Q: What sequence folds into this?
């Protein structure tokens, strides 16, 4: 498997065909989407802009409108972007239309590729998924970061994925971005909480009252692996363990 990593949204996609893009936004879009599927949501429609969110919502009155700007729920939306809001009581059986500052923009940036959503909450099942479905393929780990700048928590998560792939039976060829991510993960003693709590976005979220989200987003788990097939714009199901 060839593994490449882009460290922020500003980076151009790598040249050549990619079999799969892993969209990583640990704080918090990826973790919220994984949580929503774990808790029984039917579908997530990621959109880049608020205008798109209102437009799609107008044709889907049954859907919940979700997301944030500056880390805060958008006025008139049903939910913000705290994974703790995506409980079974709220999301089970529902369609979610979601717009966040970086995470959903990242998902739409790679529309022409198959995408899966990655974070610490589904780290184990995600790596298993990649090993089962993309052996010998080109896999790109795309970090959302913040406003086109790198985010420590996303790079650390990419590094964790690279480390786990390299410990598997699969032979893994890394580009320089993947080697950078791996070094960051090792430098942090492979501790997700160190990355999440010392990141600038983590500090910002704490300052606006979301410290509990940081704790939740730091836990390595076996959450589901939400997938968006090539050329489609909605996540209609999740692989891996959905319980
Ligand atoms: C984003 O897409 O930028 C986020 O997930 C921000 C956040 O809600 O923490």
A:
């Amino acid at each position: 498997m060839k593994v490449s990593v882009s460290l922020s949204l500003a980076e151009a996609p790598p040249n050549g065909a990619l079999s799969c893009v892993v969209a990583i936004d640990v704080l918090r879009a990826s973790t919220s989407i994984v949580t929503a599927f774990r808790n029984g949501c039917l579908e997530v429609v990621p959109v880049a802009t608020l205008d798109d969110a209102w437009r799609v919502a107008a044709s889907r009155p049954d859907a919940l409108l979700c997301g944030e700007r500056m880390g805060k729920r958008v006025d008139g939306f049903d939910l913000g972007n705290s994974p703790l809001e995506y409980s079974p009581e709220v999301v089970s059986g529902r369609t979610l239309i979601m717009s966040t500052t970086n995470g959903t923009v990242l998902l739409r940036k790679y529309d022409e590729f198959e995408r899966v959503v990655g974070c610490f909450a589904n780290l184990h099942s995600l790596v298993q998924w990649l090993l089962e479905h993309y052996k010998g393929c080109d896999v790109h780990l795309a970090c959302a970061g913040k406003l086109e700048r790198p985010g420590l928590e996303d790079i650390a998560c990419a590094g964790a994925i690279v480390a786990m792939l390299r410990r598997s039976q699969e032979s893994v060829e890394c580009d320089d971005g993947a080697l950078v991510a791996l070094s960051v993960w090792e430098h942090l003693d492979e501790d997700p909480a160190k990355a999440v709590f010392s990141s600038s976005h983590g500090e910002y979220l704490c300052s606006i009252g979301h410290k509990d989200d940081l704790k939740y987003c730091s836990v390595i788990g076996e959450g589901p692996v939400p997938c968006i097939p090539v050329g489609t714009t909605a996540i209609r199901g999740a692989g891996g363990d959905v319980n």
